[in-house]
Design goal:
Blueprint (H helix, E strand, L loop, with lengths): L8 H5 L2 H7 L4 H7 L9 E2 L4 E6 L2 E7 L8 E6 L2 E16 L2 E16 L10 E5 L2 E7 L15
């Protein structure tokens, strides 16, 4: 004889033995079960990146605080400007009756489509105050064009 059992959507999402065995396992194993591992690659972070035209130049700025200049790589290929950076920071703190260490590791890879008509041979990059600024002059034959938006 079959009996009807009320369906519980939470049981379908989380295995019945997950919470029961949570406290019986090592913390690394729990993280692996949740989809991650302590031994995996550094996690990615997403800094603010903006691109605009100003005074005849096309400018791309990326906020990369705490990144060493030698850990920043910029490439231009096929109408795309790619920025790659790695950040590793370790802080040690001592206080009354406590000692601690905090570490942050992260990798950023982002790209921005660049317009036609940039003078790539005159492209410059500078890094100051945690901000990477890349600029290139725009050829006068390729001015920005305005597109009218119809409001209804």
């Amino acid at each position: 004889m079959n009996s009807l059992v009320r369906w519980n959507p939470m049981e379908a999402m989380v295995p019945w033995n997950f919470w029961g065995s949570l406290w019986d396992e090592d913390f690394d194993e729990v993280l692996e079960r949740l989809g991650g591992s302590m031994d995996e690659k550094p996690m990615a972070w997403m800094p603010k990146v903006e691109a605009y035209r100003k005074n005849g130049n096309y400018v791309v700025k990326a906020d990369l605080p705490g990144v060493k200049p030698e850990d920043i790589h910029v490439t231009v290929d096929n109408g795309c400007l790619a920025i790659r950076a790695e950040h590793e920071e370790e802080k040690k703190s001592k206080g009354k009756g406590r000692r601690g260490k905090e570490a942050f590791m992260g990798r950023f890879e982002g790209s921005v489509a660049i317009p036609e008509g940039l003078k790539l041979d005159k492209m410059k990059a500078k890094y100051h105050g945690g901000v990477l600024e890349i600029s290139a002059p725009v050829d006068k034959e390729h001015p920005a064009r305005e597109i009218k938006v119809e409001i209804r």
